[in-house]
Amino acid sequence: MRIVLLGPPGSGKGTQAKLMQEQIGIKHIATGDLLRAAVAERTELGQAAHAYMARGDLVPDALVIGMIGQRLRQDGIARSFLLDGFPRNVAQAEALDQLLTGDHLALDHVVSLDVDREEIVQRLAGRRTCTRCGAMYHVRFDPPATPGACDRCGGPLVQREDDREETIRARLDVYDRSTAPLVAFYRDRGLLRSIDGMGSAADVMDRVLKEVGQRH
Ligand code: AMP
Predict the structure, then answer these.
(1) H/E stretch holding 160
(2) What is the rounded radius of gyration, in angstroms, for the C-alpha atoms of the chain?
(3) pLDDT tens column, 92-107
(4) Domain extents for the chain?
(5) CA 32, CA 59: separation in Å to the nearest integer?
């Protein structure tokens, strides 16, 4: 099954993708995670992408499309995946179509998570990530037992550089301008499933699994 998860930053795409990977074994591919790893490793791609990410802007299409093309070709991953954070604009969506049709494949579902804007700012501004194992916390909604330390591995928790309030608002503006038009793009192709993204992660996952035919 090939799924794209759409939704503004903070709508819960990453959380849902991780839960679905656990529940139905579908491979989660997050372009934001791949780019952050490239920045941390100071690869050529990471160095080119870093300034855009720190401002909350989109990384240029050519870089991201090249990166995702490579990833999808690894181990025949194009057969089954859940994409989180890609495509981010119509040009990327068209590039994804081309990558898949080259292999005689197509998307099965595009799931759009709807969450209101103030809730998003709250969610993102409180988000903390473990630098060692990647576990996620929220200072109010899901705090670690010891402030600043990961419950699972004891690693230090940090705020993502682009999760500060000013940058969050810039990322939401970029979403409205560039990514929201994808909703219409996929609706026209009959692929779009809009889901209420408010409420607990487990409730939202239930709704998502029903929409993609994995739960009744
Ligand atoms: P995310 O973790 O999905 O919120 O992504 C973090 C940042 O990585 C974004 O604000 C962009 O700067 C960059 N990024 C992630 N995915 C893409 C994409 N598909 N196209 C362009 N930039 C991206």
Answers:
(1) none
(2) 17
(3) 999 999 999 988 999 9
(4) 2-115+178-211
(5) 10
The pLDDT tens digits for 126-154 are: 999 999 998 999 999 899 999 999 999 99
Instruction: Please spell the DSSP secondary structure of 115-149, one letter per residue.
Output: --HHHHHHHHHTEEEETTT--EEETTTB--SSTTB
Residue with token string 């579902």: 109
> Whose CA is closest to 94, among 208, 189, 212, 194?
189
Q: Supply the DSSP symbol for 17.
A: H
Q: Which of 85, 167, 154 is nearest to 125 (CA)?
A: 167
Is 127 an active-site residue? Answer: yes
State if residue 11 touches ligand 1 by the CB under 6 angstroms criterion.
Answer: no
Say whether domain 2-115+178-211 belongs to CATH 3.40.50.300.
Answer: yes
Residue 194 in contact with residue 112, Cβ under 8 Å? yes
Distance 175 CA to ligand 1 centre (A): 10
pLDDT digits (tens, 9 = 90+) for 65-91: 999 999 998 877 788 999 999 999 999
The active-site residue, picked from 2, 18, 71, 88, is 88
pLDDT in tens, 27-69: 999 999 999 999 999 999 999 999 999 999 999 999 999 999 9
Query: Residue 140 class from Cβ within 10 Å (0-12 exposed, 13-18 middle, 19+ buried)?
Result: exposed
Determine if ligand 1 sits within 6 Å of the CB of residue 130. no
